[in-house]
TrEMBL record, chain A:
Species of provenance: Bradyrhizobium campsiandrae
InterPro entries linked to this entry: DUF2063, DUF2063_N_sf
Gene Ontology MF terms: DNA binding
This protein's name: DNA-binding domain-containing protein
Top-level taxon of origin: Bacteria
UniProt KW keywords: DNA-binding
Gene3D superfamilies: DUF2063
Domain Putative DNA-binding, residue spans: 11-100
Automatic annotation (TrEMBL), chain B:
UniProt xrefs under PANTHER family: UPF0276 PROTEIN HI_1600 (PTHR42194)
NCBIfam families, per database record: PRK05409.1
Organism: Bradyrhizobium campsiandrae
Coiled coil start-end: none
Sequence intervals crossing the membrane: none
Alphabetical list of InterPro entries matching this protein: MbnB/TglH/ChrH, Xyl_isomerase-like_sf
SUPFAM superfamilies documented for this protein: Xylose isomerase-like (SSF51658)
Family: Belongs to the UPF0276 family.
Name by which UniProt lists this protein: UPF0276 protein HA482_22085
Length: 260, 302
């Protein structure tokens, strides 16, 4: 036996698992010299089907939008291209929205990738660290002349997803079952995703809200974030936005920023 | 190894580790069962969870497990450690596993004789290994490492397999006994896996159980399997965990309990998950067999 023979079994066994054209590894067999094609296919099937089901569990609205057959075919391509690298399957599928955006058969559903981004963020919020959200009364306790310089600590569950389409409405209609008689898919929508306590919250952000929150997440002061949001959208309203974010539980604390 | 010196009964050799919950039947835990379980109020039993599902930082999974843990002993069942793989263990994953053991203080902690990661890819399946002196040494190193990190014995589960390796030099039961002897680990005997593998590889399940070191068994698994066929059109059983325990597996379980005495026994059901009362009834059937085992032990003692 070659010295490396005992370590080569995984190297021989693994590659054909996700390659339907790969040969059954020569190292394996059925009993008494029986063939191992269907036998090895059990492993192939377990791997592919369980990973498709993992993606279906992370992306139920995407599957509802495409139908299960389309979804499973799309997921199978993605799994072969990008198998998981972590044993934590709730971390899998981060590249799936990008894959959907490139997937030629999904071109007729241009908002599908953004719905997937919201679903990925939903699961991240679900598993994020627990932290009590900022009290709704915290802002009222700050002296008015100190408001501009405030810096917010964002809740570990908080995410922003921006879309050129009505991705939040489409997500809500296909995942939560919110009624939607007619959706104008071409209306741009930005999503706030967070989880103040038990339940994940997905909300549409008001005009300029995504820029505002993204700035706060990167450590800008309230004044800096408001200026960036106003530049992005003339309709930006500071009071509505900050109250809405605090009420949704997007922050955990606030403090005075560095004096400039 | 010499077949003549194998212990065939449990009476003579005490376990080197305690059985904190005795001959109790339990089930897999699924989040959709929590409301029904809590409605019933605390009952005799235990629940097993797949460790990886509780490795997130926070959120509802931990809240559910904390709530369950208040009323029930837990079994922490790792699925992805790749103990049977040639590569070194994933230290980050091992640290997460240790964290769960410390946080939830499970009554039972187990992992699989299998591998699931190669190089950077995680395959999400329990893949087989050849049984050789070299793989035996590697598996023992891995179990030593796990047990050192979690500071307690691990129960190692026998696999269900569909192929075997041409270069294997020992039987699975011999391999597993050697692992237990060298590492001091306990064993999780999956009776359904024994039946599935015996059918798939044409060996006798009873002979396997006769060869298996039953005194080291700290937990038993029961589950349903599915039927397919191999390339020759002959029966190939799939360890599908998607239905009730088969009659033949119940029979083997009774034989094991008669020989080994009662041990914690878990009914697994991971796919086509039934309503809670259906799974609970499977656990009750296991409990009835365990109780008969207790009565037999009492008679022997008297």
């Amino acid at each position: 036996m070659q010295p490396e023979a005992h370590t080569s079994y995984a190297a021989a066994f693994a590659p054909p698992l996700l390659d339907p054209d790969g040969d059954v590894p020569a190292a394996v067999t059925g009993p008494n010299g029986k063939s191992a094609v269907k036998r090895y296919d059990v492993y192939r099937n377990n791997v592919t089907v369980s990973l498709i089901e993992a993606l279906a569990a992370i992306y139920p609205a995407v599957q509802r939008l495409t139908g299960p057959d389309f979804f499973r075919a799309m997921a199978r391509f993605h799994i072969r291209e990008t198998p998981p690298t972590s044993p934590l399957l709730f971390d899998y599928g981060r590249d799936f929205p990008g894959f959907i955006a490139r997937y030629e058969h999904a071109r007729s559903l241009p908002w599908l990738a953004d719905v997937a981004r919201i679903e990925r963020a939903w699961l991240d919020a679900y598993h994020a660290a627990d932290h009590p959200p900022l009290s709704p009364t915290a802002l009222a306790a700050v002296a008015p002349d100190r408001l501009a310089n405030l810096v917010f600590t964002v809740h570990p569950a908080t995410r922003v997803v921006r879309s050129s389409f009505a991705a939040v409405t489409i997500f809500a209609a296909n995942r939560i079952g919110e009624s939607s008689d007619r959706i104008d898919a071409s209306t741009p929508e930005d999503a706030l995703i967070t989880r103040p306590e038990f339940d994940v919250v997905v909300q549409r952000l008001p005009p300029g809200g995504a820029v505002f929150l993204t700035c706060l997440m990167s450590g800008c002061t309230l004044a800096e974030a408001a200026a960036a949001a106003t530049e992005a959208s003339q309709d930006f309203e500071l009071a509505t936005n900050i109250a809405g974010l605090i009420e949704a539980g997007a922050f955990t604390s606030l403090r005075p920023g560095d004096q400039k | 190894m010499d077949a003549e010196i194998r212990p065939r009964t449990s009476a003579a050799i005490p376990l080197r580790f305690s059985l904190p919950i005795g001959g109790v039947a339990g089930t897999s835990f699924k989040p959709e069962y929590l409301a029904a379980i809590l409605d019933e109020g605390p009952q005799r039993g235990f629940f097993e969870v797949h460790a990886e599902n509780y490795m997130g930082a926070g959120g509802p999974p931990h809240r559910m497990l904390e709530r369950l843990r208040r009323d029930y002993p837990l079994s922490l069942h790792g699925v992805c450690m790749s103990i049977g793989g040639p590569a070194p263990l994933d230290r980050a994953h091992l640290a997460r596993f240790r964290g769960l053991v410390a946080r939830y203080q499970p009554a039972l902690v187990s992992e699989h004789l299998a591998w699931s990661t190669h190089e950077t890819s995680f395959f999400n399946d329990l893949l087989p290994l050849p049984y050789t002196e070299a793989t035996l040494a590697r598996v023992c190193d891995h179990i030593d490492e796990v047990q050192e990190v979690i500071r307690r014995p691990l129960l190692l589960e026998n696999p269900s397999t569909y192929v075997s390796f041409r270069n294997s030099t020992m039987s699975e039961a011999d391999f597993i006994r050697a692992v237990a002897e060298r590492t001091g680990c306990g064993l999780l005997l999956d009776v359904n896996n024994v039946f599935v593998s015996a059918t798939n590889h044409g060996f006798s399940a009873l002979q396997y159980l006769a060869d298996f070191p039953l005194t080291r068994v700290g937990e038993i698994h029961l589950a349903g399997h599915a039927e397919q066929s191999d390339d020759e059109g002959e029966l190939l059983l799939i360890d599908s965990h998607d239905g009730p325990v088969a009659d033949a597996v119940w029979k083997l379980f009774e034989i094991v309990i008669a020989r080994r005495g009662p041990v914690p026994t878990l009914v697994e059901w991971d796919s086509n998950i039934p309503d809670w009362p259906v799974l609970k009834a499977e656990a009750a059937a296991a409990q009835a067999i365990l109780n008969r085992g207790c009565a037999m032990e009492d008679r022997h003692a008297a």
